[in-house]
Write a structure and sequence with these properties.
The chain is of the alpha+beta class. The chain is built from 11 helices and 8 strands. Bound molecules: iron/sulfur cluster (2 copies).
């Protein structure tokens, strides 16, 4: 009804659910005209191929093309199964959790760079991406977009990858690194000095190297691992009449 009204027609007496299981009564209900409002256009045939949503889209856009006054974007009530999402780019860290959560394939990433793309015609407005987003930067808008662009992927957010300040290798995204820095630098006991904060901007390998070479590195200051005791140690200690601790001290 929202779609028909949005196209500029009256929705009065246009849509009905006919539940009759008796074929004769069903035929009668369909032919007696009691469910039909004024004709919108001459009846047209469509090839109902594809999935449920494909067929529905084809029927809706065909009806739309017969409605000269209709706008390209039709507003729908909240929780309608058509619409788009928007991402507040300032808060998005491109963690891609929303892409993993989308059950309809409406969201996708790019293997070559940090990026989220969206296909509006595939979105069922389930809200899973919004619930999953750790930064709460996704909003939903119910609507029907009749334009062909609704079936094409559009980039919602994209960023240059962050590069390691030591070796230049691409890793993570700049916004994620900046966010981690703002939360840890000077606030966490392991990220107090400049050298420690700089570790955040390094890739895994360079971070370990830099940590190892730091003056007060925990990696180097830990005591050596104790020697492993074997059965032979116990047997030899027994033969020499020593406790195993004393035997190990002497050998
Ligand atoms: S919108 Fe949210 S879940 Fe999606 S990439 Fe951005 S921060 Fe992650
Ligand atoms: S609302 Fe649902 S279908 Fe639409 S993009 Fe989010 S997770 Fe995917």
């Amino acid at each position: 009804r929202a779609l028909v009204t949005g196209m500029g027609h009256t929705s009065e007496n246009r849509i009905a659910i006919v539940c009759d299981s008796d074929p004769d009564k069903l035929a009668e209900a369909l032919s007696d005209g009691s469910y039909a409002g004024p004709l919108i256009s001459a009846p047209r045939r469509i090839a109902a191929v594809g999935g449920k949503r494909d067929v529905a889209r084809l029927a809706i856009t065909t009806l739309h093309s017969a409605s000269p006054e209709a706008p390209a974007l039709l507003s729908l009530p909240e929780q309608a199964p058509y619409g788009r999402i928007a991402i507040d780019r300032d808060g998005c860290t491109l963690c891609l959790s929303c892409v993993s959560a989308c059950p309809a394939g409406a969201l996708s990433d790019n293997p070559d760079r940090p990026q989220v793309s969206f296909i509006e015609s595939a979105c069922v407005q389930c809200g899973l991406c919004q619930t999953t987003c750790p930064e709460n930067v996704i909003s939903l808008e119910a609507r029907f977009n009749t334009e062909a662009s609704a079936m094409q992927p559009m980039v919602l957010h994209s960023e240059e990858p962050a590069t390691c300040t030591s070796c230049g290798k691409a890793f993570g995204t700049k916004s994620t690194i900046e966010r981690i820095k703002s939360q840890l630098a000077g606030k966490h006991h392991m990220f107090r000095s400049d050298a420690q904060v700089n570790l955040i901007e390094m890739c895994d390998d360079c971070r370990i190297n830099a940590q190892w070479n730091m003056e007060d590195s925990l990696l180097r200051t830990t005591s050596p691992r104790p020697r492993l005791r074997t059965t032979d140690d116990y047997l030899e200690a027994q033969e020499s009449g020593l406790s195993v601790e004393d035997f190990l001290k002497e050998h």
